[in-house]
Amino acid sequence: MNCAKNAPAAPQPLPNLSLEDKNTFGLPAIADLAYEITSPDQLPELIASILKAGVVWRVLGGGSNVVLPSLLAGTTLIMGISGKEIIDSNGQFTLVEVGAGENWHDFVAWTLEQNLPGLENLALIPGTVGAAPIQNIGAYGADVAEYIDSIEAFDSKNQAFVTLSKEDCCFAYRDSYFKQNPERYIVTKVAFKIPKAWKPRLTYADLAKQFSDNPLVSALEVFHAVCKVRSAKLPDPKVIGNAGSFFQNPIVDIAQYENLLAQHPNLVSYPDATGTRKLAAGWLIDQCGLKGYRSGSAGVYEKQALVLVNHGGATANDILELANIIQGKVRERFGVELQIEPNIL
Ligand SMILES: Cc1cc2nc3c(=O)[nH]c(=O)nc-3n(C[C@H](O)[C@H](O)[C@H](O)COP(=O)(O)OP(=O)(O)OC[C@H]3O[C@@H](n4cnc5c(N)ncnc54)[C@H](O)[C@@H]3O)c2cc1C
Fold this sequence. Notes:
This protein is an alpha+beta fold.
């Protein structure tokens, strides 16, 4: 009997790979050399050879939160590890393990098919499961961190697989330990702990309005409502290139918030868990008269000022120049610094 584990096939080198259809902005980009990773076991040898050669590298998931340069030097690892499995269930929670390359929205839909409500407010966020913890994706009052139990990743620094607990991941608003340590970890698997106790989260006006007369709303109804609202508000990347919100909502201390409110009584903001205040970046941009503004082929989406779009033929430079104009106007008018949300690779 041969008890040896079958070694995974070495990933095929993909030289000069076009990433134009692998980033939701639709920016023209060529990867010098790419590999599609379909098994964690492919990583140790590959990373060792990349480090030995001393070339730069990065991971690409669904390309929905990146601004890609026209040429990506070094090695690009395209995450394609699949699989989802319920591994434990008791009276309080269900534990689910998911491969980093699974599509996020499909995973959310699958949890509902398995009668595991909880993630429905995060429906229709593009991208992969492995990227979800990187910026701690969030929408409609929920953050993915709340549902994460642990993360399996390959640590390129120590050239070993590690399992990081939720606490190790240092999750914060659109932030994590992974984001703070770029080019170190490759997330291969995410374990989700989904509580059995469930109640709908309808604090956001769009959802509250729809369900005010339906307190017995189901998770599936919330899921469909979230999909509908998002489809109406956000541009479909297949139609017009974009990376969702281009700026984070700036967090200010209460003194600055009160000062701004005195000058701008219509200021849109939300209370923050840490006692600070989160300003609506889209409102700030809109107030600068920039909704629908165009700079060459890059523009501010006409229905939502927080989203920058590629009207066709834009490059990373066009997008970043436009971002710079917006940051300057918001700084000048409100004294607030806007941070770019997507990763500039
Ligand atoms: C229309 C639209 C709507 C959006 N709405 C939301 C929203 O509501 N909330 C929200 O939070 N985000 C939103 N986003 C942003 C985006 O969908 C998320 O950030 C998503 O998690 C990115 O996943 P991805 O697989 O596309 O990552 P990519 O864009 O491929 O990568 C993003 C970053 O993560 C790194 N990375 C990716 N995979 C791995 C991995 N396995 N291991 C290590 N590093 C990795 C990359 O190197 C890169 O730095 C939206 C984007 C679009 C286009």
